[in-house]
Design brief:
heterodimer, A: 115 residues, mainly beta, 11 strands, B: 109 residues, 0% helix
């Protein structure tokens, strides 16, 4: 089974802090994704990556950056956390071998609160 | 990119089949239909996907209409643990998937 591990289930940070959310996968998948989930808005794509050192903006990249230095690790960075970034953050991976049909595999999420 | 439309909520009696509909009338010929579900406080869980043929696995069956403009996810014998939000997604360009609001399924005893 694919395992996607997010480093923290719950995180509380102060406004203005730099925040790192880490995601690690054990299946050697090239594609990795970061979503945020908010009530009434569903899941929204922040950034994704198809390979090491590659990144693509999703629908809502503002206020975020990402880092993919190793294949198994995809980090989401909040340069200066703000209260409107309080949310559930979800990491996902995908095997690109059969891009047309390969599903996403999600971690259990990090619930971030910015005070 | 193809959009999907799902009912906001549905109820189902425990032990009965749960049939969750999804409309995707603008789907392109090479786009797959995926279903995920999310139980409270967990990440979304992959259920099943298909292109044009009906599919079945240990969790569910997926019925896609011949014109591919709609599909139905069937949980054959719903249990209380199937209570969740179910998402129908059509895979967009460049591998990214867009999730809508989904259908909140409540299985009642």
């Amino acid at each position: 089974d694919v395992k996607v591990t997010q480093s923290s289930r719950y995180l509380v940070k102060r406004t203005g802090e730099k925040v790192f959310l880490e995601c690690v996968q054990d299946m050697d998948h090239e594609n990795m994704f970061w979503y945020r989930q908010d009530p009434g808005l569903g899941l929204r794509l922040i950034y994704f990556s198809y390979d090491v050192k590659m990144k693509e903006k999703g629908d809502i990249p503002e206020g975020y950056s990402v880092s993919r230095e190793k294949k198994e690790r995809f980090s989401l960075i909040l340069e200066s956390a703000s209260t409107n970034q309080t949310s559930m953050y979800l990491c996902a991976t995908q095997d690109p071998v059969s891009r047309g049909s390969s599903p996403l595999h999600f971690g259990n999420g990090t619930r971030l609160t910015v005070t | 990119d193809a959009k999907t439309t799902q009912p906001t909520s549905m109820d189902c009696a425990e032990g009965r089949a749960a049939n969750l509909p999804c409309n995707h009338s603008t789907i392109s010929g090479n786009e797959y239909v995926y279903w995920y579900r999310q139980i409270h406080s967990q990440g979304p869980q992959y259920i099943i996907h298909g292109l044009k043929n009906n599919e079945t696995n240990e969790m569910a069956s997926l019925i896609i209409t011949e014109d591919r403009k709609s599909s139905t996810l069937i949980l054959p014998h719903a249990t209380l643990r199937d209570t969740a939000v179910y998402y129908c997604i059509v895979r967009a360009r460049n591998n990214d998937m867009r999730f809508g609001a989904g259908t909140r399924l409540t299985v009642k005893p």
